[in-house]
Amino acid sequence: MAARGHVQDPNDRRLRPIYDYLDNGNNKMAIQQADKLLKKHKDLHCAKVLKAIGLQRTGKQDEAFTLAQEVAVLEPTDDNSLQALTILYREMHRPELVTKLYEAAVRKVPTSEEYHSHLFMAYARVGEYKKMQQAGMALYKIVPKNPYYFWSVMSLVMQSISAQDEKLSQTMFLPLAERMVEKMVKEEKIEAEAEVQLYFMILERLGKYVEALEVVQGPLGGEEKTLCSSKENSGLFPLPEMRSIPDDWQFYLLYFDSLFHLIDQSWTPPQEGAHSAEGEVHASTAQALSFMEDRIATEEAKESKHLRGPYLARLELIRRLRERSCPEAQQLGEPLELMFQFFVKFGDKPCCITDLKIFLDLLTPDQHVQFINRLMEAVPLCAPGEDGVALPGDTRALQRHLCVTQLSRSLGQQHALNTEGKLGLIKELKAHYQHGLQFGKSCLKTELQFSDMYCLMAAHVYVDLWLETGDVWGFWTPNTSSTTP
Q1: Measuring CA to CA, which of 19, 331, 378, 407 is 20 to 30 A from 426?
Q2: Is 314 exposed, middle or buried (0-12, 13-18, 19+ CB in 10 A)?
Q3: How far apart are CA 443 and CA 423, in angstroms?
């Protein structure tokens, strides 16, 4: 319960043992400690809420809710009680109760910046965009800070997005949001890049593309607001940014979107002068191929710290060219080999599985087994033990093996095993899990172990068996040890 780090209530010392028990998962002791404290201090509302949290976590939801409401009806304004109730309602999946909590707090302490801010966030969690708008302006009147003003503006944008009547969105919500931002622009009160981004978003949604371009090219898009150099907006002209920040995946996607849109439009650059105000524009597959070759060559020239972006972008370009039946896709290489090379470079990173998974469709069905076998060749495993299972010697090898195992499942190879094969796979996954625990001895109880994913995969294979046979015995084990999946 990290929230207690912000609590300044004088009763914090008395409450600390309960917080500690809850943090450590000892809910029964937390309940007992709360009961002891309440016998001495019956009006210590936060102790009741902390007890309710313990009850909630031990499955006694009705008791927890009743106890919490005893405090909520009193409309508390102390930080301890408010934060504890917020945590409890979140665990109960009742975020609407948090709004009522802070509505009452704001009524009692109308000048509290903190309570108004919490109220705005509570409305945001339940999608009450109109109330968000009102809360944002109320907060700005109390504390005239730009972020609060633009919270209200963003709430109008959210109302326009969620409006069922598009006409209402275009004639009321967005124009009002535009006027609110223009007021700040005229008064020269724009302070942050995010404020300019919001202005740009509003103009774009209104279809005012000329005005949006003027914002980008004008003073608001200059260095003082850093809009043009920002990660979020440089997609308008990604080439310079891609060269300076070559690992940003979004830039490549924007680049490909722009490239093929221009190709579809048969756009050609002017014979004289710059392609655009932002510089060079690519509008042919030949330019894209040349650009990717340049990016890859730059990466290959490095001795270490390779970036994933260019290699993934090459695979993405192959996909898009194939979708258009463009023969140029072959010039970029064979996907199986390119994905293998990617695994060699980045297979020990947890992100490798999600990186490669989205490109598995580039492989033909008859390449699946070959692909997994190639990857396994790049996984350094120790000699098999008595159980016949070869195991990794460190966390990097473990991560590589984990990646291959997950990719194998994504390709359907685990599903294709017969019952005996699935049981053998489960045994192997359990062995890898138990072996991997040695690498996480220094981890806290609340932290994930390096080998935890093996447990999850074993459970998935058990589910496969259940779907095939209807047997549920595999889900249960007589061993109650917490380290046995």
Answers
A1: 378
A2: buried
A3: 30
Q: Which residues contact 272 (CB under 8 A, 6 or more apart)?
A: none
Q: What share of the chain is helix, strand, coil (3-state, %, to 5)?
A: 70, 0, 30
Angle at 216 (CA atoms; ends 242, 219), nearest 5 degrees? 120
Please tell me the number of Cα atoms within 13 Å of 350 on its side-chain side: 7
| Cα gap 227→180, rounded to integer Å | 20
* Per-residue tokens: 71: 């405090």
Other beta carbons less than 10 A from residue 476's beta carbon: 7
Residue 74 tokens read as 């009193």
Q: What Rg value do the Cα atoms of the chain yield, rounded?
A: 29
Residue-wise DSSP of 324-341? TT-GGGGGG--HHHHHHH
Q: Would you state the structure tokens that stand for residue 413, as one six-digit string? A: 């190879």
Positive or negative, the Cα torsion across 19, 25, 27, 32? Answer: negative
Instruction: Please state the pTM of the whole predicted model.
Output: 0.66
Per-residue pLDDT of the chain (485 residues; tens, 9 = 90+): 544 444 455 678 889 999 999 999 999 999 999 999 999 988 899 999 999 999 999 999 999 999 999 999 999 999 999 999 999 999 999 999 999 999 999 999 999 999 999 999 999 999 999 999 999 999 999 999 999 999 999 999 999 999 988 899 999 999 999 999 999 999 999 998 899 999 999 999 999 988 988 888 888 876 555 454 444 444 344 566 667 778 888 889 989 998 999 999 998 888 777 777 667 888 899 999 999 999 999 888 987 788 999 999 999 999 999 999 999 999 999 999 999 999 999 999 999 999 999 999 999 999 999 999 999 999 998 877 767 788 999 999 999 999 999 999 999 999 999 999 999 999 999 999 999 999 998 888 788 899 999 999 999 999 999 999 888 765 555 444 444 43
The full DSSP string for 415-464 is TTS-HHHHHHHHHHHHHHHHHHGGGGTTS-TTSPPTTHHHHHHHHHHHHH
Cα–Cα distances in Å, from 399 out to 349, 392, 435?
A: 7, 9, 13
The β-bridge partners of 392 are 381
Whether 409 and 459 have beta carbons less than 8 Å apart is answered as no
Task: Please check whether residue 336 is in contact with residue 370, taking contact to mean a CB–CB distance below 8 angstroms.
Answer: yes
Q: 3-class DSSP state for residue 204?
A: helix
